[in-house]
């Protein structure tokens, strides 16, 4: 029995939607339908009742679902055992990530670890806000975390992997969007959209320090939990925000980014890990990170600390 057909069956059974199941598996919908038909022929049973509007498991499909899941778990166990058998290092390593600067690195890291250390299983955990990563690393909730300077805990190590430029995001029709750069003091009377104050956002903390250095406290009109929501609100004309260059791939209609006038300011994104003895698997992942995202040789002159 082809495990690809079983995975197709389980995906459709869980999604009850062929298009969503195809997206989940990374195959075309006709290919997925063909795999289901082949499994049904092999089992001599109809697994789904299909119509143009809905998909439902038949009695045979419902009865086959748990055994199919069990077979796939066994197949995954065989594959993992074979990988570990030829790997010098094995174990689980949990990585806490937040923000665009770390998200884009995860596929490269996963590929490198799988190639060099197939016995290591990466467990990826979204932290929402990078400022919480040092505490979670220290507490053992995650093994390695992505955060930003300053890291004020003495029980974790950290190293810089990228410097992110501080920028301002504005509605496209805003008068300040007409220029190539915006003076911070010109934002003093603007409504702001930003992250919640109590959640550990390093970007919000940087915004408050920058505005304070220019003699004002921003008038925060709306808080939102992530950069996508914040930038969507900015595009809708709710307010402006100070953010970092790593989110500039978010190209929402009605949204523009501008540099801040004066010498460029940067936030330093860092990797954090525990100071006490770490497992061989954690050390192997840290080494892989050093190869993929080494510490920059030169730091820009204006890094917010």
UniProtKB/TrEMBL annotation:
Gene Ontology cellular-component terms listed: protein-DNA complex
Q: Which domain of life is it from?
A: Bacteria
Q: What range(s) does the HTH lysR-type domain occupy?
A: 1-58
A GO molecular function assigned to this protein is: DNA binding
Keyword field: DNA-binding, Transcription, Transcription regulation
User: Which family would the database say this protein is a member of?
Assistant: Belongs to the LysR transcriptional regulatory family.
Record protein name field = LysR family transcriptional regulator
Q: Which organism is it from?
A: Kocuria rosea subsp. polaris
């Amino acid at each position: 029995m082809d495990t690809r057909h079983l995975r197709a069956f389980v995906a459709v059974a869980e999604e009850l939607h062929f298009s969503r199941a195809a997206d989940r598996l990374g195959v075309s919908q006709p290919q997925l339908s063909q795999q289901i038909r082949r499994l049904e022929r092999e089992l001599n049973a109809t697994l789904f009742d299909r119509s143009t509007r809905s998909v439902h498991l038949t009695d045979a499909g419902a009865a086959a679902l748990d055994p199919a899941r069990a077979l796939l778990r066994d197949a995954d166990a065989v594959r993992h055992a074979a990988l570990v058998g030829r790997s010098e290092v094995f174990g689980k390593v949990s990585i806490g990530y937040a923000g665009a600067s770390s998200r884009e690195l995860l596929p490269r890291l996963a590929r490198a670890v799988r190639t060099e250390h197939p016995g290591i299983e990466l467990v990826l955990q979204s932290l929402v806000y990078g400022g919480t990563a040092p505490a979670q690393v220290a507490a053992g909730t995650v093994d390695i975390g992505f955060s930003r300077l300053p890291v004020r805990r003495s029980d974790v190590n950290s190293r810089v992997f990228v410097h992110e430029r501080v920028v301002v995001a504005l509605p496209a029709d805003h008068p300040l969007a007409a220029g190539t750069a915006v003076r911070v003091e010109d934002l003093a009377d603007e409504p702001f959209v930003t992250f919640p104050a109590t959640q550990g956002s390093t970007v919000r903390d940087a915004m408050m320090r920058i505005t304070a250095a220019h003699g004002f406290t921003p008038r925060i009109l709306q808080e939102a939990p992530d950069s996508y929501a914040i930038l969507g609100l900015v595009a809708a004309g709710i307010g402006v925000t100070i953010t970092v260059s790593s989110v500039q791939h978010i190209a929402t209609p009605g949204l523009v980014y501008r540099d801040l006038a004066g010498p460029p300011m940067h936030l330093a994104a860092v990797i954090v890990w525990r100071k006490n003895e770490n497992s061989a698997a954690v050390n192997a992942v840290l080494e892989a990170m050093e190869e993929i995202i080494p510490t920059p040789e030169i730091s820009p002159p204006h890094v917010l600390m």
